[in-house]
Each structure stands twice: as structure tokens, then as C-alpha cells.
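Bug #2210: C-alpha cell dump truncated for Zinc finger BED domain-containing protein RICESLEEPER 2-like?
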Amino acid sequence: MAENIMIDKVIGESGASNSNATAQSQSVQSTVRRQRKKSEWKMHKRSINFCPISSQRGEDMENSIVNCLKEWGLERIFTVTVDNASSYYVTVKELSKKLTKWGTNSMNGKHLHVRCMAHIMNLVVHGCIKESIVSIEHIRQAVRYIRQSPARWKKFQECCDKGNLVRKSLCLGVPTRWNSTHLMLNRAIEYESAILEYVDHDIGLSHHLEFVDIVDGSPAGTLLSSDWEGVKKLTKFLEIFYKLTLKVSNSLYVTSNHHFLEICKVVVYLIQLILNDDVLLGSMEKKMKEKFDKYLGDPEKMNNMIFISCVLDPRYKFDSVSFALAKMFEEKEPIIAKAVHTYMTSSLMSM
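Reproduced locally. Full output below:
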């Protein structure tokens, strides 16, 4: 596995981010990047190290991070953003102990560990996609078939011309990347009429779906109208997660002040869909809500810095946090809001 470890230096403090990348042999690679805010308030990112580590054990990854910090003279780390693997919890815990020994562990490490929002969204959405895997695969195999030869692609463009559609490339999504699948489905829906026109003129596509490609050991089958209806509902649903991931994953501007309100948007959206009359959507959203609650359904599971950064944004303040808590936790809101307010006040006073 390859480990990407980003060391962010922001206004004199530092934050670290760690996310999974592609597999490379049996060794683990660490890339250390540094981000900082200059006086003109523009984010600057620099790769400062790339080093192999012996394993994915938390202690080994912590040692690699510490060595990089020493090499570059970075001692003040405010947050470390990691995925939800258990080894990362050990990494952050051991790093916190090291920073305490150095006397640079801000607020005793209470806010050091930040779970990657994009990774949580990935875990939540993948469960949703599995519910519609057959319809998704029908579309994916149709797109793959059309893209496989210049002759098929030329015939597809002719179908676009008949429907007065602007010629664009069809996106072939990667099955393991839901955002890629989302983009593929969006483009396919845009060219639904052209794809259906193509199906009528090329019997080979129907044969391709019925006899060549398989889903879970079974033939993919015919591309049906129900497939289009299903993926249209799915893409509309995935759009909010896609936009959220883009917003919180940006490295060119500060994103911490958006996290909590974006979490609130997702929760409210899921609750609305659970109450939807559509059986399929209601079932999917219920499962997603359960998984979402596993990671972010309790304020105690959240790094309290997401509340503080939201309050410090002059556009939001504490009223916005209280409003969001009410939407998320309803009758529990007064108790939770009071606890959050007390914690934030004491934290800001101690800063």
C-alpha cells in the first residue's frame, strides 16, 4: 500500500492528512506534504518527503512521520487527518505521546485526530451503490461496448446527430470509485436517447450484455427502462455526496469551517429520503443513515474542532451550529448544544 501523509502548516500550527493510494508491492510508501497559509491567505502545498516504511503497523507509521518532522524542523502539529483503519488510530495515539514529550501537543492532543470526511463518504456511498449494482453494470457494459471500437463510436455519434445532441465522450466509470461511477451515469443519462437509438441499430450490444459480461456470476442481461429509472434516482441522490466530497477535499483553501454544516446537510437529506414513498430509495437511505451514524451520528464521535472552526467563521457563528444540531438531533439538541457551547467556551478561553 502507499501511504500519503500530508503535513499542513497553517498560521504557525500544523495539520497532517493521511489517505490511501494505489498498492505497490509489499512495502509501504509515505509521501509527506506540507501546506501553509502565507500572509496573503493563499494555501500553498509542497511535497517535502517520500519514504518507504516497513509495515502498516501504527507504531511504524508514527516513526516515519516523526522522522520527517525532525528532518524538516516541524514540531507543532495541530491536526492529523486519517482514514478509519484501526492502524491509523494507533498512529495518531503514538504521535500524540511524542508531541507531548516535545511539549508541543496543542490542547493536550484533544483535537489531533481528525477522521477523513471524504473516506467516510466513500464508505457510506459504496453501500448505496451495491443496492443498484445490476442497473449500474448494464449501463457500464453498454458504455464499454460503444467505446471499444472506432466503428461503434462513429455509429454512436451518428445517433447523437439524429437526436440533435452535442457530441461528447462517454465516461467509463471505475467500479471501485463511486465518484467515477457517478460521472459515468450522469453522462449516460444525458445521452440516454442516443444510447437507446444505438441499441436499436446494433444487435451486438444486446448480445454483449446477455452473453459476454457478467454480474456476480450471472449474465448482465438486457438494458431495460427500469435500469434508466433506477440510475436516474441514484445519480440525483449521489450528487449531494459528490459535491460535498469536492468541497471538503480541496487543498487550495481552508475547508474545516464547512465540515459540520455539510454533515448536517447530508443527515437532513438522508432523513428526507428515508421518509420517501419510493421503496428502493427508502431502503438504501436507511442503510446509509445507519452507517453514517456509526461514524458521525454522535457529537462525541466528532472532533470538536469542527464546531469551533464553524463558530469562528463570521458567516455562521454559534446560531448556525445550534440550528444544525437541532436539525440533526431534534429533541436532544438543547442538551447537546449546551455541552458544545460549554466546551467551546472553555477551549477558546484556554487558547
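Output looks complete on our side. The radius of gyration is 24 Å. Marking as cannot-reproduce; reopen if the truncation happens again.
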